[in-house]
Amino acid sequence: MTLHSFYIFDRHCRCVYSREYTQGSDGGSTNRSNESDTAKLMFGMLYSLKNIASKLGDKEARNNLKSLSTGKFRLHLFETATGLRFVIVSDPAIDNLQSVLWELYSNYYVRNVAQNALSPVDFACDELLANPKFVSETDRFLSSLPVFR
Hints:
Part of the multisubunit transport protein particle (TRAPP) complex. Keywords: Endoplasmic reticulum, ER-Golgi transport, Golgi apparatus, Transport. One of its GO terms (biological process) is endoplasmic reticulum to Golgi vesicle-mediated transport. This protein is α+β, with helices and mostly antiparallel strands. The chain contains 3 helices and 6 strands. The chain is globular, with a radius of gyration of 15 Å.
């Protein structure tokens, strides 16, 4: 399996959704590591590197952080205009998942969360994204990808 986890951070720097994938019988966990140091450190690292990347480029050219690779993993980042950040953690051999992140946002998040009248517009401090339809559809979509295996 090459996809390890999927996170959504809101515009207030909080992890509102986390999904970890394991090879065990349970398939992983949802929203168990939202307040973990891992999620907080990952967001802090991505935020800092995004600021560094934007300052390294000239004023006219937009320099965006889309991916970060280490020897053990690769982070794929997609940021929306409203400040949501979608992050997938994968093996370093996976090259580019921008189209997957766009699909997760535009087809699954917008349809199941943003257009849902019962879903909050802005998540409260202790509120998590736990829409069962969103969880099941994103799981089905990610597990159907060739890079999931």
